Amino acid sequence: MGIESDQLVLDYLSRVGDLAQQRQLSSGDRMRLVSQLRQEIEQQRTKAADSPGAVKRILGRIGSPEDVVREAGGRAPARRAEGARGAGRMCRNGRCTGR
Questions:
Q1: Phi and psi at residue 76, in whole multiples of 5°?
Q2: Spatial contact of 23 and 69, defined as CB atoms under 8 Å apart
Q3: Distance, CA of 5 to chain centre
Q4: Which of helix, strand or coil describes residue 22?
């Protein structure tokens, strides 16, 4: 396995883990998610040429880290609405509360 290809996988799995934590998946669920993804990626890598391009295609088929975490049940984090009119408002899933 090539170093550049390995780094792409590590970066992807790290992003999934970070998003899963931000979106409040339990530590056990995060570990299972990352472990299952790692197995799936490695299984697909054994069937494909070991190149950064092949790894990018594999990761593209799996989906973005955001999509993977969303599908695993991660909630979108609350965010503050921007701008003067939105000051003091909390938004989640397109709904805002507050002032």
A1: -70, 135
A2: yes
A3: 18
A4: helix
Calpha distance 82→57 (Å, rounded): 36
Token pair listed for 31: 């570990």
Q: Is the entire prediction scored with pTM above 0.70?
A: yes
Q: What is the DSSP string of 61-96?
A: HH--HHHHHHHTTPPPPPEEPPSTTTTT-EEETTEE
Contact 80, 91 (CB under 8 A): yes
One-letter amino acid at 5 equals S
Q: What is the pLDDT along the chain (99 residues), one digit of tens a residue?
A: 689 999 999 999 999 999 999 999 999 999 999 999 999 999 999 998 789 999 999 999 999 999 999 999 866 554 433 444 444 444 444 454 544
